[in-house]
Each structure stands twice: as C-alpha cells, then as structure tokens.
Write a structure and sequence with these properties.
One of its GO terms (molecular function) is oxidoreductase activity, acting on diphenols and related substances as donors, oxygen as acceptor. About 75% of the residues lie in helices and about 0% in strands. It starts with a helix and ends with a helix. With about 350 residues, it is mainly alpha-helical. It has one domain. It is globular, with a radius of gyration of 20 Å.
Length: about 350
C-alpha cells in the first residue's frame, strides 16, 4: 500500500503542475500582455478557467495531506526549513483567488478593479515562482538541519541561484501551458494567432530558463547533468521531451488543439520524471549528505494502509465528479467567438 500512496503523491504533484500551472499561467499571460489587449485576454481566461479554477488546488491539498499523514518527518522538515517560500506561495494563492473573485463579481466597477487586476497578475507570477523555489530547494542539498543561526536554517536553505532558476523555469512552464490550453478554446482567427505567438514565446522562455537551471546547477555543484544524462531513463525521457517539442512546433498552424495539449502535458510529465527518477525514493536531499526517503520516513504501517485505501476509494468519487464539472462548463466555441464580437 506504500507504493500506492507514493504513486498518488507523484500523480498529485504532476496534476497540480499541469492543471494548476495552466491556471496560474492565465494570470502570467495577462501580466505580459499589452494594456489594449488585456480586456480580450481577460474574457478568454474567464471562459477557460472561471468556472473550475478552484478545483485545481485539490491536487495541492492531496499532496499536503499525503505528506502530513503518510510521511510526517518529511512534512515537518519542509514546514520548518523552507517555511518562508511555503508561506509566500500560500499567500499568493489566497491573494490570487481573492482578486479573481472580486474583479469578476464585484457589483461596483470602479478604480478598485485596477487594484484587483494587479493583485491577480502579480500573485499569478509569485505563486508558481515560489513553488519552483520549493521544488529546487528539496534537491539542492542546502537544507541544513544542523544549522545554528537563522540565515543558514531558514534563508540559505532556499535562497540560492539554483532554486531561483527553477522558480523562473516553473513560471515559464505555467505560461506555456496556459497558452496551449487557451488555443483550443477560441475560434477567432486573429486571437488564436495571438495565443499561438504567446505559446511559442513561453516555450522559448522555458527552454532558456531550463538552460539557466543547468548553469545554476553547475555553479551550485548540483549533479543535475548526471540526473538527466547519467542513466538510460533520464536520456530517454529527455529525448522524448525534445521530440515532443519538435512535433508541437509543427502543429502550431493546424487545428489539432487536443494533440497540442497532449504534447504539452507530455513534456511536463517527462520533465518531472527526469528530475525525480535519479534520486528516487529520496525526496529531500540534505546538506549534511543525508536524505529523507519515502521508503524510510513513512508513518505507521496501519496509517499508510488507511491512507492508501482512502486515496483509492476517494478517487472513485473525485475523478468522475471533476470530469463532469469540467465537461458541464464547457461552452460551445461559437460563444467564445461571439464574446470577441460584442
């Protein structure tokens, strides 16, 4: 049952990166859109994420619950030594959700709308940025559980070039996912071409930020190159991700939007697999050379069994309901087209 829990943990992280990432990317795209075009972008975003955006955080909640219940020592280490980026990420989620709600449903349209807009777009950037910082911190061997001062314990554990580069990479990925997802939601040719350009731009930005991650890993002496190219799985997944990028670029001018989404999701899946396979089952690499392993840091066996069964049974209710929710709010494409014409 332990492996069932671990599979759910990895899957929840992946789905939050894919679905939540596309959600955050909506605000990132708006942030990097010129003022005259923001109103059109905003209408499209409401159409795509408005009805179901909150459901994306379900995967984050599942991840936290699994760590808290099944792997308490790992949860404790993260909560203590990288609590600052964790708090900033959570504040970003709260600020983003609040701003999204008020700017959409506020009965009075006044200058506060501009405040809501700024909070929404900047928190959409900040949240995945610190999510990436958290991810980078867990494998950078900078978490020092033996630290005797505040800076070493709570600042330098996450504030370094590698984690910052991973944060920027995560932001670029979110913008890319959102743009690819939105392409399939509109029929207006001009607006579709706009989002294709944005998808290309964020894809290039992701490749550039990925290069920064490799450069930072060399500077910080993190064996990322070995994780990626030092084993057959890493080489294979990197090759498949590269091939999928090539295929995706050949599809930009076609109407195969579902295939575009599939390839984009496949790329992110390969990236997550590359970064987790080599040091599996270790989930946190510590500065003193030790690691926190999912196999060794598990909770009580009965607790793991109960958690595993809860996840299995819960998925039977959650997944069909989530699919039904998304399907129910999918409007015909013609309605999106009319939104731009009005």
């Amino acid at each position: 049952m332990l492996y069932v829990v671990m599979i759910f943990l990895w899957t929840a992280i992946l789905l939050y990166l894919l679905l939540g990432g596309a959600d955050f990317g909506a605000g990132i795209i708006e942030l990097f859109t010129s003022d005259p075009n923001k109103s059109k972008i905003r209408k499209t975003m409401y159409r795509a994420i408005g009805p179901v955006w909150e459901a994306n955080h379900m995967w984050l909640i599942i991840t936290i619950v699994i760590l808290f219940v099944g792997f308490p020592s790992i949860y404790t280490t993260m909560s203590v030594y990288i609590h600052i980026p964790l708090v900033l990420m959570l504040l970003g989620i709260i600020a983003r959700g609040t701003a999204f709600t008020f700017r959409h449903y506020d009965a009075v349209k006044d200058e506060m709308q501009q405040v809501y807009n700024k909070i929404f777009v900047y928190s959409s950037f900040i949240t995945p940025f610190f999510l990436g910082i958290i991810a980078g911190s867990t494998v950078a061997r900078r978490i020092d559980t033996e630290a005797t001062n505040f800076l070493d314990a709570y600042i330098f554990s996450w504030f370094h070039w590698f984690s910052i580069a991973v944060g920027l990479f995560t932001v670029a990925i979110c913008g890319f996912l959102a743009a690819v997802f939105i392409i399939g939601q509109i029929e207006d040719r001009q607006e579709r071409e706009r989002f294709v350009r944005k998808a290309k731009t964020f894809n290039i930005a992701a490749v550039f930020c990925g290069g920064l991650v490799f450069m930072a890993s060399l500077y910080e002496k993190i064996p990322l190159l070995d994780w990626v190219f030092g084993n057959p799985v890493g080489i294979t997944t990197f090759g498949l991700a590269t091939i999928s990028v090539i295929f995706l670029w050949r599809l930009w001018d076609t109407d195969k939007t579902n295939l575009m989404r599939l390839l984009a999701g496949f790329q992110i899946t390969m990236i997550l697999l590359i970064t987790t396979w080599k040091h599996y089952p270790n989930i946190i690499l510590l500065k003193n050379g030790n690691s926190l392993s999912l196999l060794e840091e598990q909770g009580n066996a009965k607790t793991i069994d109960a958690l595993g069964w809860a996840l299995l049974l819960g998925s039977l209710f959650i997944l069909p309901a989530l699919i039904c929710l998304i399907y129910s709010f999918q409007k015909p494409k013609e309605k999106v087209k009319r939104q731009f014409e009005n």
